[in-house]
Amino acid sequence: KKYVLVIHGGAGTIEPSRMTPELEQAYKAKLKEALTVGYEIIQKDGSALDAVEKTIQVLEDSPLFNAGKGAVFTHEGKNELDAAIMDGESLRAGAVAGVKIVRNPISAARAVMEKSEHVLLARDGAEDFARQVGLTMVDPSYFYTKERWDGLQKALQQEAVQKKANETAVKLGGGHHDDKFG
Amino acid sequence: TVGCVALDNQGNLAAGTSTGGMTNKKFGRIGDSPIIGAGTYANNASVAVSCTGWGEFYIRNVVAYDVAALMDYRGLTVEEAAETALAKVAKSGGNGGLIALDKEGNLAMPFNTSGMYRGAISAEGELEVAIFK
Question: By CB neighbour count within 10 A (0-12 exposed, 13-18 middle, 19+ buried), where does B18 fall?
Fold first, then answer.
């Protein structure tokens, strides 16, 4: 069988107990929708690059996944988004890191690749560039979902417990956390 | 993290990845997603790759490029190369998964976590989606 499009929506501790039939259905429906968008572009002889960007936009716009709307929160309670794209034909590549007000970071990554001499732009500079090339900019609150906010609160509570346990380490400017979330 | 790899009718490959990063991240921490060669890579001569997982291990193991290099230099299939590259992440203490699509339309979707939201569609339009193993 020859495949033309493959997607992933993240790999993590997806607890079967939390995955209700309705939620599973919602995830599968969104994955199918994303695949269909990309497939239609390929079917019309569109470019792999277009298919990748448009497919990822569907997933970025869905609150179900940790990208765009529905992204996780930083320690400071912000959404800082990263994205990259690469063109297999020309080996051109573009990426953005730490952007907070660009609706579709994958489109900002593509703009860096196609409209700049750079490969990676970060934070407010990347946002200025995205604004200059006319990408859709949103208020930071656009990315908020209660589930992700609650996820941060849980991580902060766990961190507080761990902090107490290894006070000394934390004092050494960041110390050594075994916990990868933080 | 979300990702996509595509092969168009002209034989061109492309890869893309987008993420919110890791919950509770500090100090402007960045993972593999925006690092070309670590979380995202595409080369018409071999494969398009998008990764998801504990970013630091993908950066240190240059996983996305490693998949292409293993296919290029050792002649591994996309599945062998993807498994071999991901095994380095697990061996060094990380976890996650990746999707890879080669220039013939063969795919690989390995992961070593409890699940990975993933999907694929063939040239004929046959659609597959899955979450758990």
Answer: buried
Q: What is the CA radius of gyration of chain A?
A: 19
Instruction: Convert the pLDDT of each residue in B35-60 to its tens digit.
Output: 999 999 999 999 999 999 999 999 99
Question: Residue B14, SS3?
Answer: strand
Average pLDDT, chain A: 93
Q: Is B33 on the interface with A (CB under 8 A)?
A: yes
Mutate to test the interface with A, among B5, B12, B17, B18 (most CBs of A within 10 A): B18
Question: In terms of CA atoms, which chain B residue is nearest residue A38?
Answer: B6
Contacts of B127 in chain A (CB under 8 A): 32, 35-36, 39
Q: Which chain A positions have a beta carbon within 8 Å of B125's beta carbon?
A: 39, 43
**ipTM beyond 0.90?**
yes
CA–CA gap between residue B24 and residue B37 (Å, rounded) = 25
CA atoms within 13 A on the CB side of A72: 25
Distance CA B119, CA B121 (A): 7
CA angle, A146 then A148 then A153, to 5°: 90
Cβ–Cβ under 8 Å, residues A93 and B36: yes
Assign 3-class secondary structure to B50-110.
Answer: EEEECHHHHHHHCHHHHHHHHHHHHCCCHHHHHHHHHHHHHHCCCCEEEEEEECCCCEECC
> Treating both helix axes as pointing N-terminal to C-terminal, what angle do A105-115 and A48-61 enclose, rounded to 10 degrees?
150
A68 SS3 class:
coil
